[in-house]
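Blinded run. Sample ID left blank on purpose so nobody reads anything into the name before looking at the predicted structure. Input follows.
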Amino acid sequence: MEKLKKFPRIKSLAWKSSKMQHWDTKSKRSGSGRVRTMTTWRYPQYTITTEFAYLKPEEYKKMMGFVSQIQGGTEPFLWFDPEDNEEKGITLGKGSQGEWQAVRRFGDYTEPVAYVENVKLYADGTLIEHVTTDGGTIRTSDTVSPDAVITADYTYYWKVLLSGDFTAELEYKDVYKSKSFKLVTVQ
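Blinded prediction complete.
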């Protein structure tokens, strides 16, 4: 997996953030009124809209530097979402696979994640000691029963692009505030 930069971990994100889910859905209506729909996308695209309630001068400089490093919306990066970032006890498959794709769960729907950290992997509830990751792929060098149910706990990141500009303005002496900005998921 390519080495992606991580969005700076600045704790002053405003509470008013939103996620919009989009599918590339095509609809056709026949003369009789029957509707047929389809999508060519396997997974949805999310648009995350958020802002910083405040930034200290060093955080402002860190953000401006980060946006310059990714050249605005040119380079994908990893976003640690303040709300959606963790899975516990999620079933990944059977021991016979040897490697597993990490996923996030929304209700009964699951989709792959691009990057995981703090992984704990279990075979039939027993902790597996030797675990490595490559992006969102989890592997073990331990011998695992082929019929064992593999579950995991981990934190995950979203792979996104900056959509539009990042703007920060000086509110008071040494206090900056950002305008809302958008991040769009990419596969």
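Unblinding after everyone has recorded impressions. The helical segments are 57-69.
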